[in-house]
Amino acid sequence: MPFKTGEQYRERLDRLQHNVWFRGEPVTGNITEHLAFRGLVSFQASLYDMQNDKAYQEKLTFTSEATGDLVGLSFLQPKTKKDLAKRREMMRLWADYHHGFLGRSPDYMNTSIMAFYSASDLLSELDPQYSDNLKKYFEYCREHDITLSHAFIQPQASRYVNINDGVEENLAAKVVDQNKDGIVVTGAFLMATQGVTAEEIFVFPPVSTLLPETDSPYTFVFAVPNNLPGLKFICRESLVQGDSAFDFPLSSKYEEMDTLVIFDQVLVPWDRVFLYGHEDLAHRFVIESGFHAHVSHQLLCKNIAKTEFLLGTIEYMVETSGMSNYPHVREKIAEIIVGLETLKSMLIAAEMNAKIDKFGSMVPSKNTILAANVLYPELYPRIIEIIQLLGGSSLVMIPSEKDFESDIAPYLNKYLKGMQSDAKEKVKLFRLAWEISAGSFGGRETLYERFFFGNKSSITSRLYEGYMGREKYIQKVKHFLQG
Amino acid sequence: MPFKTGEQYRERLDRLQHNVWFRGEPVTGNITEHLAFRGLVSFQASLYDMQNDKAYQEKLTFTSEATGDLVGLSFLQPKTKKDLAKRREMMRLWADYHHGFLGRSPDYMNTSIMAFYSASDLLSELDPQYSDNLKKYFEYCREHDITLSHAFIQPQASRYVNINDGVEENLAAKVVDQNKDGIVVTGAFLMATQGVTAEEIFVFPPVSTLLPETDSPYTFVFAVPNNLPGLKFICRESLVQGDSAFDFPLSSKYEEMDTLVIFDQVLVPWDRVFLYGHEDLAHRFVIESGFHAHVSHQLLCKNIAKTEFLLGTIEYMVETSGMSNYPHVREKIAEIIVGLETLKSMLIAAEMNAKIDKFGSMVPSKNTILAANVLYPELYPRIIEIIQLLGGSSLVMIPSEKDFESDIAPYLNKYLKGMQSDAKEKVKLFRLAWEISAGSFGGRETLYERFFFGNKSSITSRLYEGYMGREKYIQKVKHFLQG
Amino acid sequence: MPFKTGEQYRERLDRLQHNVWFRGEPVTGNITEHLAFRGLVSFQASLYDMQNDKAYQEKLTFTSEATGDLVGLSFLQPKTKKDLAKRREMMRLWADYHHGFLGRSPDYMNTSIMAFYSASDLLSELDPQYSDNLKKYFEYCREHDITLSHAFIQPQASRYVNINDGVEENLAAKVVDQNKDGIVVTGAFLMATQGVTAEEIFVFPPVSTLLPETDSPYTFVFAVPNNLPGLKFICRESLVQGDSAFDFPLSSKYEEMDTLVIFDQVLVPWDRVFLYGHEDLAHRFVIESGFHAHVSHQLLCKNIAKTEFLLGTIEYMVETSGMSNYPHVREKIAEIIVGLETLKSMLIAAEMNAKIDKFGSMVPSKNTILAANVLYPELYPRIIEIIQLLGGSSLVMIPSEKDFESDIAPYLNKYLKGMQSDAKEKVKLFRLAWEISAGSFGGRETLYERFFFGNKSSITSRLYEGYMGREKYIQKVKHFLQG
Amino acid sequence: MPFKTGEQYRERLDRLQHNVWFRGEPVTGNITEHLAFRGLVSFQASLYDMQNDKAYQEKLTFTSEATGDLVGLSFLQPKTKKDLAKRREMMRLWADYHHGFLGRSPDYMNTSIMAFYSASDLLSELDPQYSDNLKKYFEYCREHDITLSHAFIQPQASRYVNINDGVEENLAAKVVDQNKDGIVVTGAFLMATQGVTAEEIFVFPPVSTLLPETDSPYTFVFAVPNNLPGLKFICRESLVQGDSAFDFPLSSKYEEMDTLVIFDQVLVPWDRVFLYGHEDLAHRFVIESGFHAHVSHQLLCKNIAKTEFLLGTIEYMVETSGMSNYPHVREKIAEIIVGLETLKSMLIAAEMNAKIDKFGSMVPSKNTILAANVLYPELYPRIIEIIQLLGGSSLVMIPSEKDFESDIAPYLNKYLKGMQSDAKEKVKLFRLAWEISAGSFGGRETLYERFFFGNKSSITSRLYEGYMGREKYIQKVKHFLQG
């Protein structure tokens, strides 16, 4: 069976009937029709449809060796630099289509699971069955184009589980029982983005917070369908305020709902368990799989598309307002250009300096690509700040689509026109700028980018610890001083 | 007639029947009942009611010499440092009540018009009638506790009026005719905050953008009731999403609607015209009245209250999450403490170094108080950033009041509790933090604080140009170098 | 015996014959004539002479109750706000004279020892003799106008003494013996600023690094004359490059040598021991004495004088180069003005909010004054950066005094003149700007200001931990949320 | 004649007998023996010697088509990406040897003149003789391995020449006469770095400051030997304080003297004049030659080498002090790593996206390489700040080489040792860190890096104006909004 179309995506979602809670009520109707989800689902369906579009198919799919079917290219395990380039082209295509606003476009999780799959042999150290389970699950996802979400952050009060055992022990998700059919898991995860709009959920442990132990009920890697009994998805407030693309150009399309995922005595079947109980191996599994490098490759493609879109938005605002000759405007735009050129250069360099790992995967250079991860959580909020600084009060005083259809429209047309644009075009642009830089959709985006791969301490430590070259540079200085 | 009560405020608003447009429709019902305005109106009514509350009355009012009535203390022209202290106590009382979230609490415009009134003699240079008009209007406002909004920013495409006369001339607001009854004004103003929820509007020119001319149809100072024929208020999108104080702790109370004000052949009666046609005098009037210093005194009180509230919010978050021992947390909070202590010290110093001006007003030290204006547009966004950095993903995954009343509540109670608080309390706190730091109400607040008194170039020039002491410091260095 | 004159200062220094090492050689001649020290000594002598100058004497001295003599006002224990104001006037007078470039002008240590003296009763908890010793020593210093340095930072490799006892134990300064005459101390201290140009040295423990113990050989407070046997002062590189005030306007006057102080079996007489062995009391002694608040009061006076001088330098540069109309120049200067106004406001507020402590001292408000300590280590380097940014390459290409006396002078006079100054005046100014912002004297100043009161973590923790008001602000938010 | 050796470099310098002024005296002896120059000359000689070293020769030279001799590779006009790679390898080799501390290593000017040479045909528009002169001069430089300096900044008071003609006219360098032998130039240039230690000087106009005119005595491009009559080099203060590599590890080797160059009626022979009088062409010549891109390629190589060295220095300090586990330390080092990875990625990307220009040169991507130029003036000072923050007071208290040879040495050995190094090694390292981050050599370096390619406004405008892609990004947004 080949890649999925948009229509199939919608059908499977509605058929799923998973347990979703929204504003204190269980969602009973179709996910694809609910105001909070329909915009995103429609948009995501069009991503899947691109795979079926002759204009894009060659770049978006490859022929599965297992079945001869065309499958999504983000499932491809890269073994050469050319594979990396193919993956990048695929990911840029989708990212350019969603302009980087989907943090969880399907290639993200496809890449994650590909990374884990490529390291599945490592699991044999614990039990060959685990390795086998993961390989089969990966093939299942690839051949059925499964839409996945994932979960790994535990509720905050439980992150000190090893420090305050007494207090927190009952909060952290853990295996409360196991039997011949599988392990029984109880607990909660913050926050499965697109949990509602995916088919299955992949769960793996946070690498950095737990102490190495050989046997822990808190350590597991598994995947389950979203409609398994005992599984509940609790939505946060929806940021969708309407379907109008004029009034809500971003949230009407790109609002990826975050969910609190509850596991209440969920039985995870053994064939869906990929690792259980061995913290040290779980840790090595995440690190050695090249997970961070592979996923950061996808992330970098997304961030470049997003930065291009934001730069375009700002340049358009500047054009509309005739501000391009002010030195302070140029300095601010130059900052964004420097950021964009940095990201693009890093993408090139990460591929050029890629290395084959012990599993045969061609892994983008960690030195470079993890540096990009440190950069973006500060670059993105700065771009947002620049939009605010250049937009000023014009961002605030923006009427709606209906105003332009009313008797009051002539006044708007007269008084809100730009230097080089009519009022409606200008207002449309500034509504976009508002949503990015001051609306609640934009607020969530900023938080999301700040913490995508952890807080500053985590991402800098990840870069610092794995950094290749340190010793060479120290030797340079020692040699200089001896010399 | 004395100060106004909340009830009187509501009655007058509903009686006004001014021309208000909201989402493409004229507002026909009562302002005080409309979802977009009712929260703010109720809250503001309670501010007026405080004047009638024995616990506060002495601090909030003074006896009018004209009538013997108690009138609002923010109308008091300060003539001594003690008067300044009284004014400060009054303004802190209201600011502490609205926690600094009202940028246009009534004392703001009361203070503005008091500043202009105190310099009314200057207008006699042009025509003694203007001076007289302003004095009478001020007394009218003070004795009737009139709620004012104001307007002075012109639509952006028209700010180059003197540069591109041909293109823009028909955009800038101007006097299109005059007759025995008054001047006829056509044009638009961005953006009268609280235009809808005020009784009258005060219009004065932007000081910095126009070239000195002695006779200009673009230069005028006047005030009119909001329901004058030809006057229209067009609302931006409302940021009120509901009445629930749990879900929307800030926007349900403090959302001050901004409006585009249209003057379409509005006849402004002569007795409401305070200056017309003389740019140079208009400029001197704004500068020499001490307007910026007096209003900044009010502003500083507001900003201190807001900063205290934000610091409390952050400390509460830190308490709830048990993070107070991390050095990076302490460093971030220390930044806010330094900011708060700075504002408080400046308030003290500005009063202590106040000077009597030529009109007999005791004016807070400009050196200090205009420095505070430069500081806050950078301090406020940094505080917001710190909330984001300390809140992290906990800011995103916040359920609503209804979730806590539903069958799903037990899960929330279990998994979302804090280190020292139950889940509901913690979620309530984090909804507040969300609204400030990532929701659209907060987005507008950030824009508002960034540009309250103009862009960076304007506010730094205002400080730079009026700075006393420059020559002394240069002499110090010259003296040192001479040896 | 009353305050000291400059001449007495010089005589006592030369008579001292302490063991000073400079560039691998013991200094054998007079300190007051050595290139590395003579500039500073002459300048400091003039500070002492001001006490004898009728124009300043009233502000710089007060009548000792013990002797009826006039003694230095920085020895005055403040008991009223008026005392604080007197102290401030005294400290500003000296600071304005040295333009804030002396980090260790004598009032600094006079204030330190006054703070400790005022809390001497606390030492009676351990032994009344300690309290008595400190009182007598303080009186001795006050009545003889003793010039003190102090030492408390231990060499870096030993700061983990409690962690790596095995490795470091022999590095930390400690009492190696005690007998009827006193305690015998061996160890080293980084870095006694002005160690060479002081008469005595006061030693107290670093508050933050040691664990509470009741009996530790590492804990002591004492003072000794600089020429005690076994005491050695090792100088760092001198930053004095010549006596020319044209070429080296700052280093020729203000270079305060830092020294590594070696205690090699130094016998400290019992009457000079103020505390020994009790870590917890040592900790309380430093905290409860108000040491940080009193010393920060002096520091703030110094920092204001320095900031005024730097602002004057920059405004002079701007005047000379005709740059005052560029918005980016104004923004940068406005930053410094905001900083200066902040410091000045904090000085006023810290005195106005001062409180009497349990020892009867009037202590400046810690909330405010410790905030100023957090501010300056970031403000100062930013000012230096602004000098670099505004000075640009003009800072680099600066000839020397001799060039202006040579045949090449006409070219300099022609080509290096400023917009409003001749070449020699401009070069003189830019040599000053160079020394502050790029020369080695300035480099040491920047390091000094960054770390004056500890690293960022220490100074923010000091502010955070003692901050009054936290609970009130949290309550505000709780009250708001309850509704 | 082939490339030059170190010995030849020294010989030619001493033979030159150019007019050099140092501290008010003409330099009469050999440049190569003067304390202010000998360190740099020796070091630079060793760069030339590398060309004669079989280990490096292949990478540092190529065979001249004109003579069949081996000549310096930085003279190679790149026509393919492979040529760019060769040039980069050459430039990295030298940069790694001088660790980026030579801003004017010979490849810098070789690259500049190569860029101009490659566009020499453009000069034919004015006069074919100019084009011919430049070609011949370039060949002369290449075949004789001439060491060049250059000058283009005019004294600051003259930069407004077109605005304030009356005042400044006599200050700006200009052609005061012309005759059959050449043009006669009078004026001054700030600041020819390595003017003293070069053989010839290349002069071209500042691109950005002059108004387009077709005939201007202020516009010229020419080159002359340093010993032409009427040419004088006035040195700034020397930053060399001694020859000891222990005490002054950087300034003893890398101090590149800056000079004020005086032209007093200098006759420039016609065959050395490449352009005269035509401002518009001069402007196009600099822009269209790809000068900025080619030189930035060299600059980027230098900046990478420098950043690697600084990173090594910091990591070595961290190793020595055992600080690598502190989060704030890791965050700071991660910042530098991100900066380094950015520069390295940009170097790769600039070559990969290089394009052939109309003169047949392969030009590195301006989008990327001019972005690197905007980045470094902020990255470098931040690295310096990090050295200060991590070094703290340990940077200040550093003894000298002689101290370690004296009787006081045992104390130093005991008390100044590091966690993993002996005292002498640690002090050596910290003297290096001092010189970079606080000494006057480092101060000049910071100024140099901040302004290498102009102030912020210039370098951001250069990037902004030439940025390719702007329209594409705006179209993206327009398409999205229409969509």
Automatic annotation (TrEMBL), chains A, B, C, D:
Gene3D superfamilies: 4-hydroxybutyryl-coa dehydratase, domain 1 (1.10.3140.10), Butyryl-CoA Dehydrogenase, subunit A, domain 2 (2.40.110.10), Butyryl-CoA Dehydrogenase, subunit A, domain 3 (1.20.140.10)
Domain HpaB/PvcC/4-BUDH N-terminal: 5-275
Keywords, alphabetical: FAD, Flavoprotein, Oxidoreductase
Domain HpaB/PvcC/4-BUDH C-terminal positions: 283-481
TM region positions: none
Enzyme Commission number(s) of this protein: 1.14.14.9
Keyword Magnesium in record: no
Entry's Gene Ontology molecular function annotations: 4-hydroxyphenylacetate 3-monooxygenase activity
UniProt-recorded name of the protein: 4-hydroxyphenylacetate 3-monooxygenase
Species name: Paenibacillus sediminis
